[in-house]
Amino acid sequence: MPPSIRVLALFAHPDDAEFLCAGTLAHLADRGASIHIATLTAGDCGSTLLPPAKITRLRRQEARRAAAMLQAEYTCLEERDLLVFYNGPTLRKVMELMRCVDPALVLTHSPQDYMVDHETTSRLGQTACFGLSAPNFRTGARSPAKATRAIPHLYYAQPFGGRDILGKKTFPNLVVDIGATLERKEKMLACHESQQAWVQFQQSVPELHEPLRQMAAGAGELAGFKWGEGFRQHLGQGYPQGNLLADLLGDLVRPAHTS
């Protein structure tokens, strides 16, 4: 892998990247990629006990600690839970971040997901990728980053639980073998200690590692792996058509068999 390869994981909330793609990020980091994890919010609604200021401070710390396990940077764009909107100001934030990172590879939420914050983040990421190289789109930053030279490769992670907002199953078209990085993925998720009580309260999930392993086993089964992470590549007009994830990870990537 070229030492200059840059990867951006753009997700709505702290712990989303850990659930959905940390095993893949670990493989990329091991191969010399520079990893940047960004969230739209700091998770201000992720507690029944702590007020917004305290829970966001705690969750930023947890996110930085998890990112540090990959020697990755972490950025929060300081939106608010349930208020992630597709609008000009938010798109400019995402665009400025992307131009600063200048990634060759972007991982983000599925366009069809179980909650709107995730779906909106996915749409913002898609538009930002497409517009990165358009110099006439101004982000309004005081010292704006320059437009990039190319559209990055964009991949959508499987939604949590593998279902969309109507409960319909969604399927990846490729799967990454995370057998060698599952333990690190679990340790990264364990950094988000504040979310154990919240997820149990809101979604009746007794233990965070249980759904993580269920998802990894389900994705792996689609490609003949014990543990996997599933993705779909965005192949719309103007986007790169080569499978960069497979180029970088080789035999760790296989097509998903969903029939």
List the SSEs and their pairings.
Blueprint: E1 6-11, H1 16-30, E2 34-41, H2 52-68, E3 73-79, H3 88-101, E4 105-108, H4 116-131, E5 153-157, E6 174-177, H5 182-190, H6 195-203, H7 209-221, E7 228-233, H8 244-249, E8 253-255
Parallel strand pairs: 1-2, 1-4, 2-3, 4-5
Antiparallel strand pairs: 5-7, 6-7, 6-8
Helix pairs in contact: 1-5, 3-4
Notable characteristics:
259 residues; 8 strands; Rossmann fold; alpha/beta
Quick structural overview:
By secondary structure, the chain is of the alpha/beta class. The chain has helices at 16-30, 52-68, 88-101, 116-131, 182-190, 195-203, 209-221, 244-249; strands spanning 6-11, 34-41, 73-79, 105-108, 153-157, 174-177, 228-233, 253-255.
Could you walk me through the main structural features you see in this protein, from its secondary elements to its overall organization?
This protein is an alpha/beta fold. It has a single domain, classed as 3-Layer(aba) Sandwich (Rossmann fold), CATH 3.40.50.10320. It contains 8 helices and 8 strands, in the order E-H-E-H-E-H-E-H-E-E-H-H-H-E-H-E. Helix 1 packs across helix 5 and helix 3 crosses helix 4.
Output the radius of gyration. 17 Å
Question: In the CATH hierarchy, what is the architecture at level 2?
Answer: 3-Layer(aba) Sandwich
Count of β-strands: 8
Task: Categorize the overall geometry.
Answer: globular
Question: What's the pLDDT, averaged over the residues?
Answer: 93
Total DSSP helices: 8
Share of helical residues: 25-40%
Distance between the termini: 33 Å
Uncertain segments are: none
Share of β-strand residues: 15-25%
Write down the domain tally. 1
